[in-house]
Amino acid sequence: MGFIVNPIAGMGGAVGLKGTDGEEVLRKAIELGARPVAPGRAKEFLRAFQPMRSKVELLAGAGLMGELEAIECDYRPIVIGKRKEKTTAEDTKAIARKMVELGIDLLVFCGGDGTARDVLDAVDQEVPILGVPTGVKMHSAVFAVNPRAAARVAMGFLSGELPVREVEVMDVDEEAFRQGRVSARLYGYVLTPYEPRLVQGMKVASPTTPDEEENKRAIARQVVEDMEPGVIYVVGPGTTTKPILELLGLEKTLLGVDVVCDGKLLAKDANEAQILKLIRGRKAKIIVTPIGGQGFIFGRGNQQISPRVIREVGLDNIIVVATKSKLMGLRALRVDTGDPELDEALRGYVRVIADYGEEVVMRVE
Predict the structure, then answer these.
(1) Which strand (E) or helix (H) includes residue 273?
(2) Given this model, what pLDDT does residue 97 score?
(3) CA 132 to CA 109: how far, in whole Å?
(4) CA neighbor of 291 nearest in space, from 213, 220, 200, 171
């Protein structure tokens, strides 16, 4: 099994940069206090993969690209490439190609959509690939729902228990994403082990029919009517949450997190630190909507609402909103905050505001 880590993947999430493509964005993320995400997620995968450690030969990218995490988790990997302090997309591609040449059966990578595109460029459909979700944007259908699920999928596939299927890799324009525009196109197809409960589907955009838009406005009316004086509301990204602020006469950051209280905008496109500063010692609530086709309410595109923010607000103060058509396309809701204990606490059942005066109970996995 090949194992590659993109060491900077996901660093832009909590600080509100919506990605880390490009040196300038990475520099800004570090200045804002961004912390590495990928190493912890990589080790979470490797620890969950321990039952097969003695049965599988592990090839790992040199240094920060997988070797260090593997050694820390008591693996003895075959190291591919040379150790570098700064790694690039070309390093990912070169290591992936070498791994394929050496005859791997599965390539596991830790990253986001950008890393998925790099791996596709390198291996095409020569071997199945599987993504450990580590980035900010994960619209592609190659990612497991969390690192532990990725380990289960990898073990199942390498044991001969899972088939493969052809899935989509999406190309998202990160600069447009930061400006509030989702510019995504199909980049290509890869082979991925198939386990629908453990591997996410491709992100599905919300429809823009008149009925759908009216449904969103009805949800907004219900949420605004229920808002309590003096309570701070942390409003997550999405077209379903946008009408809530519009009804308050405020401008919503479509792909960012905004903070409001008593009809006033306290922070626009806020990062984790700004949110924590505003809510500390105050009663607050979080409003989120699941990602269409995937069902994630935390951990995909809203990493600013971090485990620290969620714990500060409290699990009883989370409001989930979703249109009826979005809910029809979901078997359950999902969470992947990066904090396994918090994920477990969030699992169970939650009420979802689906229309004015109408709620639906959904399971959270």
Answers:
(1) helix 272-279
(2) 98
(3) 6
(4) 200
Determine contact, residues 234/269, Cβ cutoff 8 Å.
no
As a whole number of angstroms, the distance between CA 134 and CA 329 comes to 25
In residues, how long is the chain?
365
Return all residues near 342 (Cβ < 8 A) that are at least 6 apart. Answer: 307, 310, 311, 335
pLDDT at 235 over 60: yes
CA distances 12 to 170, 220, 260, Å, are: 19, 29, 23
Cα distances from 230 to residues 73, 79, 130, 261, in angstroms, run 47, 56, 46, 6
CA distances in angstroms from 115 to 25, 156, 178, listed in the order given:
16, 23, 18
pLDDT band at 32 (very low <50, low <70, confident <90, very high): low
- What average pLDDT does range 160-182 have in this prediction? 75
Terminus-to-terminus CA distance in the chain, angstroms? 28
- Provide, rounded to the nearest whole percent, the portion of the chain with pLDDT above 70: 89
Q: What is the DSSP letter of 65?
A: G
Using the Cα atoms of residue 321, residue 326, residue 330 and residue 336 in order, give the sign of their dihedral.
Answer: negative
Instruction: Identify the residue whose tokens are 């099994």.
Output: 1
- What pTM did the predictor assign? 0.84
- Tokens representing 148 are 């532990």
